């Protein structure tokens, strides 16, 4: 099967990173720093980026990586670096059978170098990985939804997408039951989920909701990340009566891809913000392999080949193939009134 090795490595790397993130959440000893753009980053973001890039470099040494974080804060603060190094070592040592495939990290210097290997500028030629070590950092901090997201792109097309969601219920019909799910998709091979605790993956697909009246839509928690007011007008026009499900991170893509909801609306709040490729690459493939479509607000495909951002696109609309065009028509109608 095409990309079997890449999928295996990506799943093992994401699984190891999810253990690290869960350990930080469980410890209640998180350290948060505010970045230059005022967004938060935690020890878990750094640790997850280090473990995942180290795994990629151990297995596919020539592949470039577009990763969200850099190591500047760790290089200038010994205590922070030591804390992240300790988390990385614990995550590596607590795995069983991973190291023979994805290797390990041997020094804290190697950890810093791994984090900084995520500095690729992107582009539309050849292989590259897109990594969001913790997507929905605000969700992670508030013990809500967050996701560890890794994608392989070839000539700017996503061919492998893996998303780990430690706080998402394994069985959506049993929200109080076990949590921790890993989603994966390979281009042309379908979309799957399995419990983080299990080796058995099952296929997932969109709901067969035919009419937007019966649909559920999801959106960001933060009103600064998508335009809640415009989104509620779009929902009204589509006769959606159920309240929106607000959820942090690419868990939104995962939820609709397995039929918990039907539509993901992400209308821009600012004219200047450019969506980042690591916030959408994995979810894009998961949705298309599960029977859905992702475009920008104008119905254009997302272009992952123009750098670290989606600078050629505005907003994101994801829905099943059955509903997508209806949603785009409603978006057009509402946004042309503004
Ligand atoms: N202004 C603005 N507009 C749109 N998106 C933005 C904006 N600012 C930040 N971000 C990115 O939002 C990522 C989290 O998206 P979510 O959908 O999870 O948002 S939310 O956490 O539910 O609010 C978040 O990803 P992480 O940094 O990985 O958490 C950011 O990349
Ligand atoms: Mg993100
Ligand atoms: Mg992030
Ligand atoms: Mg961030």
TrEMBL record:
A Pfam cross-reference name: Inositol_P
Keywords: Hydrolase, Magnesium, Metal-binding
Binding site for Mg(2+): 68, 132, 134-135, 279
Gene3D superfamilies, sorted: 3.40.190.80, Fructose-1,6-Bisphosphatase, subunit A, domain 1
Classification via PROSITE patterns: IMP_1 (PS00629), IMP_2 (PS00630)
Broadest EC class assigned to this enzyme: hydrolase
Cofactor: Mg(2+)
Record bears the keyword Metal-binding: yes
EC number: 3.1.3.7
GO BP annotation list: inositol phosphate metabolic process; phosphatidylinositol phosphate biosynthetic process; sulfate assimilation
Top-level division of the source organism's lineage: Eukaryota
Keyword Metal-binding found: yes
Catalytic activity entry: 3'-phosphoadenylyl sulfate + H2O = adenosine 5'-phosphosulfate + phosphate; adenosine 3',5'-bisphosphate + H2O = AMP + phosphate; adenosine 2',5'-bisphosphate + H2O = AMP + phosphate
Gene Ontology MF term list: 3'(2'),5'-bisphosphate nucleotidase activity; inositol-1,3,4-trisphosphate 1-phosphatase activity; inositol-1,4-bisphosphate 1-phosphatase activity; metal ion binding
Function (record text): Converts adenosine 3'-phosphate 5'-phosphosulfate (PAPS) to adenosine 5'-phosphosulfate (APS) and 3'(2')-phosphoadenosine 5'-phosphate (PAP) to AMP.
Family label: Belongs to the inositol monophosphatase superfamily.
PANTHER family membership: 3'(2'),5'-BISPHOSPHATE NUCLEOTIDASE (PTHR43200:SF6), PHOSPHATASE (PTHR43200)
Protein known as: 3'(2'),5'-bisphosphate nucleotidase
UniProt source species: Nadsonia fulvescens var. elongata DSM 6958
């Amino acid at each position: 099967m095409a990309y079997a090795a890449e999928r295996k490595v990506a799943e093992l790397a994401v699984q190891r990173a999810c253990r690290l993130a869960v350990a930080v959440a469980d410890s209640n000893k998180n350290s948060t720093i505010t970045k230059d753009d005022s967004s938060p980053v935690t020890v878990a973001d750094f640790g997850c980026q280090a473990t995942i890039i180290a795994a990629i470099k151990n297995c596919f040494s020539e592949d470039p990586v577009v990763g969200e974080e850099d190591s500047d804060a760790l290089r200038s603060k010994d205590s922070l670096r030591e804390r992240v190094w300790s988390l990385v070592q614990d995550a590596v040592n607590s795995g069983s059978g991973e190291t023979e495939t994805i290797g390990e990290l041997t020094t804290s210097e190697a950890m810093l170098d791994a984090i900084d290997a995520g500095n690729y500028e992107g582009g539309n030629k050849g292989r590259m990985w897109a990594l969001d070590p913790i997507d929905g950092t605000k969700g992670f901090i508030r013990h809500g939804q967050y996701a560890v997201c890794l994608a392989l792109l070839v000539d700017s097309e996503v061919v492998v997408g893996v998303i780990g969601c430690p706080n998402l219920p394994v069985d959506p019909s049993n929200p109080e039951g076990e949590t921790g799910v890993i989603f994966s998709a390979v281009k042309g091979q379908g979309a799957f989920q399995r419990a983080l605790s299990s080796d058995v993956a099952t296929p997932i697909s969109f709901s067969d909701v035919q009419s937007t009246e019966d649909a559920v839509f999801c959106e960001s928690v933060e009103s600064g990340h998508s335009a809640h007011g415009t989104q509620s007008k779009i929902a009204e026009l589509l006769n959606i009566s159920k309240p929106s499900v607000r959820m942090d991170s690419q868990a939104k893509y995962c939820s609709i891809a397995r039929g918990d909801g039907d539509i993901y609306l992400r209308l821009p709040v600012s004219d200047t913000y450019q969506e980042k490729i690591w916030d959408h690459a994995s979810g894009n493939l998961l949705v298309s392999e599960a029977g859905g479509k992702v475009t920008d607000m104008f119905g254009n495909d997302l272009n992952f080949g123009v750098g670290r951002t989606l600078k050629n696109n505005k907003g994101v609309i994801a829905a099943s193939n059955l509903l997508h065009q209806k949603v785009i028509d409603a978006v057009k109608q509402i946004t042309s009134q503004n």
